[in-house]
């Protein structure tokens, strides 16, 4: 953890110290972030012993402080918002329990390249070109958003928040197959909602985002959609007309279609499927089941 000023460190320590009170008073006790337990002051001491990992919790709080420029009020407000959103939305269910539309599952993949350059080890792929113009996948906005958040969370599971070289992920949008561009209102709603959710509730997790196979006549779409995106995220965008150029950014990706060095595997073969949830997530699932019974 590197602080640029003493003031930053002070804010971080203050937030960390107040965490149990923030969780108890403002988040109805909900203390899970990306599958990890945050409340070291939990009244149930056994839960703390079993599931709390100080090093990960500190790394996550540092990330949030960084995301909001170490401004105490902003950091606190966002922690509250993020945890309350997670309590309501239940992104862990979307990632590990729910069954999503089968086609959507084939166009959303996660790959893991453990020897790749810093913060290019975990990649989530969205092959949106394959469903372009197919309104049926976007009609149920909630179902689409849950699918997309589930994919995000499965990618997060492969990050290592204690390791500065693997605490951010890259994302790819492959628009191969997109021809004429006309986004119907449901697709627009899905796009806007996902952008807003990622902006508000998943800060400081993206290293780069590649938009590939974008035909030159559709570059204007990039400019239009970018207007909904904050300036920090925009800086991470890379637009590549030719998908085969992706290999020069992510050399571990498949040679076929993406110009990477892997001549043996297709993207589908590289896909890691669904990683095992954290132990705390498994505990929360068990608790959820018991509460229902
Ligand atoms: C085939 C039609 C398209 C569909 C179904 C589609 C779908 C989506 C969705 C669902 C998102 C939400 C963010 C995410 O899932 O990561 C998104 C974001 C975005 N799309 Fe597309 N898109 C299409 C065409 C395009 C085109 C042609 C471009 C031009 C490059 C483009 C550029 C963007 C940009 C810049 C974002 C914002 C990314 C972010 O904030 O993380 N899209 N798109």
From TrEMBL:
Per UniProt, the keywords (alphabetical) are: Cytoplasm, Endoplasmic reticulum, Heme, Iron, Lipid transport, Membrane, Metal-binding, Microsome, Transport
Q: Which GO terms describe its molecular function?
A: heme binding; metal ion binding; phosphatidylinositol transfer activity
Q: GO CC: one term?
A: cytosol
Q: What cofactors are annotated for this protein?
A: heme b
Q: Topology relative to the membrane, per the entry?
A: Peripheral membrane protein
Question: Which portions of the sequence form the region Disordered?
Answer: 254-274
| Catalytic activity, reaction form | a 1,2-diacyl-sn-glycero-3-phospho-(1D-myo-inositol)(in) = a 1,2-diacyl-sn-glycero-3-phospho-(1D-myo-inositol)(out)
The places in or outside the cell where this protein is found are:
Cytoplasm; Endoplasmic reticulum membrane; Microsome membrane
Q: Which domain of life is it from?
A: Eukaryota
Q: Which Pfam families match?
A: CRAL_TRIO
Q: Where are the transmembrane segments?
A: none
Feature: compositional bias, Basic and acidic residues: 254-264
One Gene Ontology term of the biological-process aspect is: Golgi to plasma membrane protein transport
CRAL-TRIO domain spans which residues? Answer: 97-266
Function, as annotated, reads: Non-classical phosphatidylinositol (PtdIns) transfer protein (PITP), which exhibits PtdIns-binding/transfer activity in the absence of detectable PtdCho-binding/transfer activity. Regulates PtdIns(4,5)P2 homeostasis at the plasma membrane. Heme-binding protein that may play a role in organic oxidant-induced stress responses.
Family, per the entry? Belongs to the SFH5 family.
Protein's name according to its UniProt entry: Phosphatidylinositol transfer protein SFH5
The organism of origin for this protein: Henningerozyma blattae (strain ATCC 34711 / CBS 6284 / DSM 70876 / NBRC 10599 / NRRL Y-10934 / UCD 77-7) (Yeast)
Could you read off the lineage of the organism from its UniProt record? Eukaryota, Fungi, Dikarya, Ascomycota, Saccharomycotina
């Amino acid at each position: 953890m590197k602080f640029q000023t003493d003031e930053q460190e002070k804010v971080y320590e203050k937030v960390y110290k107040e965490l149990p009170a923030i969780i108890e008073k403002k988040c109805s006790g909900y203390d899970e972030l990306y599958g990890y337990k945050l409340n070291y002051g939990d009244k149930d001491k056994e839960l703390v012993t079993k599931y709390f990992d100080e090093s990960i919790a500190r790394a996550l709080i540092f990330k949030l402080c960084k995301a909001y420029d170490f401004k105490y009020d902003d950091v606190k407000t966002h922690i509250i918002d993020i945890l309350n959103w997670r309590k309501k939305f239940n992104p862990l269910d979307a990632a590990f329990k729910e069954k999503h539309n089968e086609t959507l599952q084939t166009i959303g993949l996660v790959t893991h390249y453990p020897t790749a350059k810093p913060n290019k080890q975990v990649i989530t792929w969205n092959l949106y070109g394959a469903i372009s113009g197919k309104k049926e996948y976007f009609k149920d906005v909630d179902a689409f958003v849950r699918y997309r958040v589930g994919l995000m969370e499965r990618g997060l599971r492969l990050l290592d928040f204690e390791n500065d070289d693997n605490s951010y992920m890259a994302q790819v949008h492959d628009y191969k197959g997109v021809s004429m561009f006309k986004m119907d209102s449901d697709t627009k709603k899905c796009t806007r909602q996902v952008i807003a959710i990622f902006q508000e509730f998943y800060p400081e997790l993206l290293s780069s985002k590649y938009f590939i196979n974008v035909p030159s006549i559709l570059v204007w779409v990039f400019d239009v959609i970018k207007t909904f995106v904050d300036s920090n995220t925009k800086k991470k965008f890379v637009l590549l007309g030719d998908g085969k150029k992706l290999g020069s950014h992510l050399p571990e990706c498949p040679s076929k279609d993406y110009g990477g060095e892997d001549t043996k595997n297709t993207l589908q073969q590289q896909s890691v499927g669904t990683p095992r949830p954290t132990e705390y997530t498994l505990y929360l699932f068990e608790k959820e089941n018991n509460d229902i019974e």
